[in-house]
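Quick question: what would this complex look like in 3D?
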Amino acid sequence: MLVEINVNGEPKSADVPPETTLLKMLREDLGLTGAKLGCDVGDCGTCTVIVDGVSVNSCLMMAARANGSNVTTIEGLANANELHPLQEKFEEHGALQCGFCGPGMLISAKSLLDRNPEPTVFEVRDALAGNLCRCTGYTKIIEAVMDAGREMRSGQSGA
Amino acid sequence: MATRTKDIRTDTEELLTEAKAPSQQPLTVPTDKPVAYPLDLPEGEARLRTPAVGQRASRPDGRLHGLGQTQYIDDITFPHMLHAKILRSEYPHAKILSIDTSEAEKMPGVLATLTGDEIPENSFGPTFQDQPVLAYPIVRHRGDGVAAVAAVTEQQATDALEKIKVEYEPLPHVFDPLEALEDDSPKVHGDTNIYTSKTIKKGDVEKALKESEHVFHRQFRTQMVEHVPLEPHASIASWDGNGRVTLWTSLGRITLGREDLARTLKMPQSKIRLIGTVVGGNFGGKNEITNEPILALLSKKAARPVKSVFTRGDEFISSTIRHPFTMDYTTGVDSDGKILARKIRLVLDGGAYCSWTGTTIGKGSILAPGPYNIDNILVEAFAVYTNKTTTGAMRGFGAPQVCFAYESQMDDIADALGIDPLEIRLRNGFSENSLSPTSQTLQSVALKESLTQAAERFGWKEWQE
């Protein structure tokens, strides 16, 4: 079954069995291993990607369902020259330890800041509620997201 | 009770939005607005003498993590790689009468199967080698693997597992560790479930208890805890033309792992190469081999690299967990709340196999009396087998469980005698040159200073008012 999606601005396609999830297609057929398999049942959030502007658990979405959609993965956050402010701030604040929750966290955070540029701490917590982290205790992740939001707002005039 | 006039929500938000490293913040308590805790206290001498302490250092792996380019085992693929799945036991305790993999072998995409009787040396373990690679002929908990399949795709491997026919004869099982202590309980291994014990004696605990003004007794129990590393256990095995096997694995202790592989595969260590890569969380749960020997043998049979990743379900039942402790504490104190004697019985729920219980019982026993000056101590600890998930290493190795017990009892004692909980700990706590429960002289002890500083920093006195 041929599935065609636009990933990080590039058209991609793969011939996959019908039971393939979007996560499996991204990781195995398209070689985009940024999104992770942590539970395969939508509990941990390590598979989070953005499909047509909405952040989703890609382990719960069938690849076929994403046919024709625009998908953003962690690989699409930085461009050739610059890190996304979220990636900068995560690095600056030391927000990640083992890093496994990282791609999912960053995508959920991006999804939040794209629709709510000035979130409160509690709105950040709410947006990241579906992304589990076993290493850090979340504090620095939240600080980094707040900081990135500030950075993105200050750089916005005229952009 | 509290004198805070500000909403805790706004406090937190302010602190987070103005977060700076402690050494960069001014060292004064604001007087023009209500005090926000935690306070910052003047820099200690140690911090001034060792400039690295308290400074920001950026993690070297932050860049790759943020880009999503960190390579974990599951991100690695090799040409012609197969996927393996493991069939878990249907019973907590049973004899395997027969395993028939013939139907599975005929399934599309299946290139190899494996059962326990094919493992050259089917036992391993850091202390006692009581754990099988694939259980045969006895399964001792639901998480025991009984057969494995390697196929071209994961789905094919999962489908093939369903075709494996296993005939079991269920045996009586034991789940409760206190029941497992009894002589007449079902036995998991051999003729007793007590597989290791430890005793610590200091002074004369019975005499001191009789002379105590008050005696407190309570039983504390802790529960099973699973590490839940976000990255499930993962490994890939591959052979070269010279009969050497290489394993990429999330295993933490690769030198120990190589010994275990040499033992179970009956191969010289020189022919085994273990590559431990970046791991997505360990916390103790990835300290011993899991399916590495299985993958090595499947790879040998199929003549192709084989990868296997635990499902999240496997993580809960087949990977090691923290030992549940049942702790009986009897403590004698004088009228000032000074502890004169402490008698403790620890029963560790040791799961189906030994794993890291040796270290856990050791640490747990020595730390059980707590960081307090006690002249008369008796600790008797037992680890028992039960037909449940193997209990192994998890951050703390027995310390968190006993800490819960002795600190809870400290609060009980403080409450009963009407003494401030901080004060009672300062009265009993270790100082420089105190003796540990095993009579080791302790040095560089900063317990009371830490407690006092922490109390100031968090507004303990103010909270009490």
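Answer marked as accepted. The interface with chain A takes residues 9, 12-13, 16-17, 19, 56, 58-59, 61-72, 74-75, 77, 155, 227-232, 278-281, 283, 309, 311-312 of chain B (CB under 8 Å).
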